[in-house]
Every structure is written in structure tokens, then in C-alpha cells.
Amino acid sequence: MTLGELLKDLPVSYEFTGDADTEITALCTDSRKDCAGGLFFCVSGLHSDAHAFAPDVVAKGAAALAVERWLNLDVPQIKVENVRETMSYIAAAFYDHPADKLKMIGITGTKGKTTTSFMLRNILKQAGFRTGLIGTVCILVGDREYEAGKTTPDPVEFQRILADMAAEHTQYVIMEVSAHALDMHRIDGIRFACGCFTNLSQDHLDYFGNMDAYLAAKLKMLPMTDELVVNADDERVLKAVLKEKPDALKIAIREKVDTYAKDIEITESGMDFTLTFHKKADARIALKLSGIFNVYNALMAASMANCLGVGMEDIKRGLETLANVPGRVELLDTHTPYRVILDYAHSPDALENVLKSLRHSTKRRLIAVFGCGGGRDKLKRPMMGEIGGRLADYCVITSDNPRDEEPMDIIASIEQGIKQVTDRYVVIENRREAIRHALSIAQSGDTVVLAGKGHETYQEIKGVKHPFDEKIIVKELLSEI
What we know:
The chain is an alpha/beta fold.
């Protein structure tokens, strides 16, 4: 494809210098990788500016550059105001606009994106549709699974994935849409047939600074979405969404809206409730997933499926046959008289939700193992300590992706909160040893929850990702104990 063809329908203002007939064989965002014959995007990031790497990339054979300022290099250049934004449109053109051949579904919000996406995927599969999924845990093209990097991939990778899905005759693509992705223009130009906004709670303030900016980023999905489902029990989200999309469909537990749940019961295997589409139909749903938050996730998935024309029978079957979601209140097969639960909870609200949920189904003690990630929102650390101390019977404070920070500095911040409510905790910096301790003291009827890692299979320390799969580690420790 030539540069001229790539730029033909570019919907942003740009200046161009060089030969429009230059052949482009690849799109490149990483100066360390081969970009021979490619268009290299000089992205100005938070920590580095790719314009500085352009001479090396050109020396290695890059055919052209997308820049925000002219560079003294003898290759064609496209000058734009925002390279990130432009990248999304050029990537779509390079891969022949694959989203136009698919029905896109977007899920945003702080919590519940992954579970809601797996629920909706299962519903659509029950209804006979070919589905793809892009999210935090993995990327699914039909039944083929690929490892995920970011919750929402970078534009070039994103469009390549969509092209693969289109080639496989996928009908629906369900994707998690992060606030970072919206703020960084990763999905500009995408049109969602249906979408939802699950909820809003404190997270990512290290990037956004405050909750207003965080909310504003997520609201950028609204103009991209034809039909939107919103959680009416989250008043802040509801108010913000209705300002821009007054016809948004509502889900709730507290009141009778477009889709709601009633007669909710906690069972040994999960949650039972009556799902009602207002004035249309209802059905009794037996979820295999625990927690009131999973009732909300089910309502989101059911409401979107209803928007897409899926009948109640397939919705019911899709919700009831989903046994688990990787790393989300996932019960590990340990063959022990106590339960071991894996969960991704790494924010205050998420930790509170999972501990409250497990409290209802735990016969004896609730033992929580958790930490906080380095290089992220520091304000949440004492909050999570307080929540763990208040809701668990015993806590093991440990390390969780310390990144470039000292683990004990992070742990000290968590202790500031937990000390306010309890002394029933221990600090064990080494996460493997922390898990060993929790398993060694667990007794019949107890629940051990390993919070923070979920589906992740690594520990990030000083820029290096070390293998750390808690499913494997639990098996190994139980064999040793």
C-alpha cells in the first residue's frame, strides 16, 4: 500500500512532504524492532519522545515517518498535531478497515469489564454467533486464545487483531475499553453497535490525577456508541451518561428500570436471581459466580444481548453455563478442606467487593493475602489496608508488582491503614512465602483469597517480569506442605 492510499481518507489535518507513491509494507511503533519498508510513528509519550529515535529507524530502512514536528531526515514525512490519534486511522486503512466488517461491542468502567465481556461472549455463542474477544485476560478469535498485553491494545496491534477476526468471519467483537485507551486515542474511528458503562471507583489516579478526569476519559466512548447500557445504581455515572446520552438503557438492582434483578439469593454455588426486562419477560437465573457485583455484570451482559436481539432462552443459558472467569473470584482446584480463591482485586472498591462477597459464603475464617502495585496510585494503599483489616479475619500483607519501588515502602503505606482497625495481620514481603503462610494456617471451613494478581502470571520487579503464576505456586506449595 502506498502512502497516498494510506492518507486518502485521513480525517485529521496533516501536512506532507516526499513521494506519495512510496510503498509502505509495515506500520512500526517500536524503534527496537525491524521497520524496513515501514511507516514509523514518532509518538511523544510521558517518559520518552520517539522523534529522538527516528534517525536510527531511518538508518535501518524505515520508508516514512509520522511526526509532530519536521525532522531533518531524507524520507517522506506526515506532520500532524497528534501522532497517537493519526495512528488509529492510518492503521485502520492499512488493514482495510476491518471494524466495518464486524459488529463491535465496547465495555468500559472501573470494575466488571472482564467478567461482563466473558458473560456476553458466552451468551452470543449460545445464540450461535461467531465471536471475538479483546480484553485484560486474553484475546480470543473464535476458540483460539492469544496472550493479551494491555487491556485495550495499541492501534496497530488492535487493527491487526480485528483484521484476523474479520478473516475468520467473526460476527461480534466484544472488547474491554480502558480509560487509558480512550485518552490515548487507541480506538479512534471505531463505531460500537452496543456498549456499556459498568461503574466508576478510584483507580489509575497516578495517570489521571483526579476522579473527574478519569470519568471524563471514560465518557469519550459515548459518542462512539449507538446503544449504551448504564448502571443506574451508580449515581455519578448515571448522571454523567444521561447528560450526553439521555436514551441510554438502564440496569439496576434497587429499582425497576429497563433491565433489573429481583429476589436475589446467595447459594453455595453462586447467586440466584430473577432477571427482568421491564414489561417484557423474566427468567430465574442460577449464576455459578459469587457476589452481588456479578449480578450487576450479568445484568449488563443480558441487557446488551437483548439490544442485539438475543432471546431470553439464550441469555439464560449463556449466563448459567459460564463456570468461571480467569482470575475473577476463581475457585482453585486444591482438594483441601478450605477454599483458595484467586482474584484480580487491586483497587479499594474491588477488594471490598470480593471480601464482602466471600464473607457471606465462608464458614469460618476469611484469610486475605494482598499488596499494592508500585508506580501506581499511592493514595489507595492505606485504604486497601483498612479494608482488608476490617473485612478479613486475618491478613497477610505482601508484595504485588513493586516495579521500581521498594516493596517494604509500599507495605508500610498499607500498614498505615490496617493498623487503624486491627492487629490481626502479618507482613511477609516475599509473595510466595506469604501464600505458603496463608495455606499453612488455613483450616477446614476457611477461605484463603489471593488478591491482586488474578490472571497475571508474573511479578514485575525493577523493570523485569519474573514468572509468577499463582495457580502453579499454590499447587507446588500444597505438595510441599
